[in-house]
Write a structure and sequence with these properties.
Number of domains: 1
Strand order of the largest sheet: 6-7-8-3-9-10-12-11
Shape: globular
Distance between the termini: 19 Å
Bound molecules: adenosine-5'-triphosphate, magnesium ion
Number of strands: 12
Largest sheet: 8 strands, mixed
Radius of gyration: 21 Å
């Protein structure tokens, strides 16, 4: 049995994953205009994923492909419309809010809007403890000091306010706040994309160090493959809400199979990845998720598309070293 199948739990008897998605989907009902009928928008569709303890799963894809929707479901902040999320093998819907908070914590993209500007750094970092009535005031203070040290924040900032901190420092505050509950799992949703490139590397290194020191498990979301290259053990590529390629990071980076993954990697190789995907490889832009293309969702932009691709939707295939949803690999 190959490792991919093991990772997807097709073999039995191995460890319970820290986090698991079983056929998870989320549909939003969208109203476009006052008198318009509501239309379903499938933001996430039929996602099966597992994250084993101590491993890093990177979830990548362009803006709007459903990454944040998936992240919110992994955190128990949003209910799936289909399928279920399991936390340590337990359906997340059956786990209490306190127990979810003890196991899985978020670090979001924007350290500017995710920190309350009227609270001191101490109040922000200790908030999860206060909300869940954990420890005494003195005990919480000691924990804040400890976690500030852990994330590399000078102690003198403890009574400062977020607007007195740099972007990188704010993200360290967000990380300390996430870790103070001692979660095993951290869901990072684009934790570095609002930061300057030089600061990004520091935060990525910090996350890597913390992972080793605290034996953390990460679901790490990014639109940029370059960001996850050194951190990820596994990579899941999403396109319009679907999982289209999944495998070990080393395999994906060495040999991307899906033409979309290939294009994402090519864009990483362009001088400025923020300029987006090179048009030569991808042609037209991202389709409207309210009326996705027929057949393979990626076919209008795919350099390798055939007639079959516009007519028939591919299924997720198990190849030797990964899963890939593309007719080329039948
Ligand atoms: N609360 C909502 N109500 C309606 N539609 C939504 C809602 N949240 C997201 N969507 C839609 O669902 C799709 C997926 O959005 P999502 O934010 O999950 O994508 P994303 O991959 O995180 O994008 P980005 O990289 O821009 O953060 C998009 O088409 C978006 O417009
Ligand atoms: Mg997002």
């Amino acid at each position: 049995m190959n490792q991919i199948m093991g990772q997807f739990g097709h073999t039995g008897g191995e460890e319970v994953p820290a986090l698991e998605c079983r056929k998870v989907g989320r549909t939003y009902m969208i109203k476009r205009g006052m008198f318009a009928e509501k239309q379903p928008l499938k933001a996430v569709q039929g996602i099966n994923l597992k994250v084993n303890r101590g491993e890093v799963l990177a979830i990548v894809g362009e803006s709007g492909c459903g990454k944040t929707t998936l992240a919110k479901m992994l955190l128990g902040l949003l209910e799936p419309s289909e399928g279920e999320i399991l936390l340590d093998g337990m359906p997340i819907s059956s786990v209490s809010i306190l127990d979810i908070a003890k196991k899985v914590q978020p670090v979001f993209q924007d350290p500017y809007s995710s920190l309350n500007p009227r609270k001191t750094i101490e109040a922000i970092i200790s908030l999860p403890l206060k909300v869940h009535k954990i420890g005494t005031k003195e005990g919480r203070h000691a924990r804040v000091v400890e976690y500030m040290r852990l994330v590399g924040l000078p102690k003198r900032l403890i009574h400062s306010y977020p607007n007195q901190l740099s972007g990188g420092q704010r993200q360290r505050v967000a990380i300390a706040r996430a870790l103070i509950m001692e979660p095993k799992i951290v869901v990072c949703d684009e934790p570095t994309s609002a930061l300057d490139v030089s600061v990004q590397a520091h935060i990525l290194n910090l996350l890597q160090d913390l992972r080793e020191e605290l034996n953390l498990t990460y679901a790490f979301i990014s639109h940029d493959l370059a960001v996850v290259e050194h951190l990820a053990d596994w990579v899941a590529v999403m396109y319009l809400g679907r999982l289209i390629e999944y495998g070990r990071a080393t395999d994906i980076f060495a040999n991307p199979k899906h033409p979309y993954t290939r294009a994402l990697l090519d864009s990483v190789l362009t001088p400025d990845a923020r300029l987006g995907l090179p048009e030569i490889t991808l042609g037209r832009g991202l389709p409207n998720p309210l009326s996705p293309p027929s057949g393979c969702y990626f076919h209008p932009r795919c350099p390798k598309a055939t007639d079959e691709c516009s007519q028939e939707a591919p299924v997720l295939l198990e190849t030797e070293d990964r899963l890939v949803e593309c007719h080329l690999y039948k």
